[in-house]
Amino acid sequence: MSAEFENFVEQVDTACSDDEYQQKAVMTAERLAEYNAKKANKTGSVAMSNIIFDFKPCADTINVNDIETAVRAIAMDGLVWGGAKILPVGFGINTLQISCVVEDEKVSTDALEDYIANLDELVQSVDVIAFNKV
After folding, report:
1. Residue 65 — left, alpha, or beta (φ > 0 → left; ψ -120 to 50 → alpha)?
2. How far apart are CA 107 and CA 78, in angstroms?
3. Contact 126/53 with Cβ under 8 angstroms?
4. How far is CA 98 from CA 17, 30, 67, 91, in A?
5. Shortest CA distance to 92 belongs to which of 122, 54, 63?
6. Taking CA 5 as the corner, what is the angle to CA 3 and CA 10, rounded to the nearest 5 degrees?
7. In this predicted model, which residue has the larger pLDDT, 37 or 82?
8. Where would I find the Translation elongation factor EF1B beta/delta subunit guanine nucleotide exchange domain in this sequence (predicted)?
9. Is 48-133 a domain of CATH 3.40.50.300?
10. How many other CB atoms are found less than 10 A from the CB of residue 5?
11. Distance (Å, whole) CA 31 – CA 39
């Protein structure tokens, strides 16, 4: 390092005392506490989304009602399963469409899709038919 750079670093280090660093740290902590308190006391409307999934069974021998039972067994805080309907595709194969309402801050749609992906012995694929803000 050059002597000029080292001199500059020394000046910066001596320009701020330990007391100033402590004051800045205390101010930062206070501001963070205020922000978290405001966020916790926030009484505004809760952002929610309505999602409709379309489940395709992995074989024609899979009962779609078994898929519905497995999907409804997925429980998360802020997740409410809605109505379901069975739609014929052809050749005796049916798909399951099921809706749910999620609180956006509590339920990650990615996490929900990961839980659904674990149903690979029943479900071949899952499509999101609709995703609407409520």
Report:
1. alpha
2. 6
3. yes
4. 62, 46, 10, 22
5. 63
6. 95
7. 82
8. 48-134
9. no
10. 9
11. 12
| Sequence-distant (≥ 6) Cβ neighbours of residue 121 within 8 angstroms | 58
For residue 81, the tally of other CB atoms under 10 A from its CB is: 15
Average pLDDT, rounded, for the chain:
83
What is the reported pLDDT for 34?
Answer: 80
**CA separation for the pair 3, 13 (Å, rounded):** 15
Report which of 73, 77, 82, 71 is spatially closest to residue 104, judged by C-alpha positions.
77
Separation of alpha carbons 43 and 131, rounded Å: 25
Percent of the chain with pLDDT over 90: 43
Domain ranges of the chain: 3-40, 48-133
Kind and range of the H or E run holding 37: helix 18-40
Give pLDDT tens digits for 57-99: 998 889 999 999 999 999 999 999 999 999 998 888 899 999 9
Please give the single-letter amino acid code of residue 109: T
Tokens 């899952």 locate to 126
